[in-house]
Design goal:
Length: 75
């Protein structure tokens, strides 16, 4: 059975139904993952807060990726 998508009246996908066999494979594959430690959660919260307060300071991903490409060319 393939994935099934549920859409609202506007056509926006609101849910996905995953066959149980696939779900079991996914949960088994990632069963060893633990919850993030508190210090990582705090760091994420801090960075999100910085973004909320200064959204103009965030670089555009295309610009950053282009800088990486330039650096690769000089190596």
């Amino acid at each position: 059975m393939p994935l099934q998508y549920i859409q609202d009246l506007t056509g926006t996908t609101t849910a996905v139904i995953v066959p149980i066999e696939e779900w079991n494979k996914i949960t088994e594959k990632f069963s060893g993952l633990e919850e993030l430690p508190q210090w990582q959660k705090d760091m994420i919260d801090s960075r999100l807060e910085l973004y909320k307060n200064n959204p103009a300071d965030v670089a555009n991903w295309d610009t950053v990726a282009a800088q990486f490409d330039k650096e690769d060319e000089t190596v």
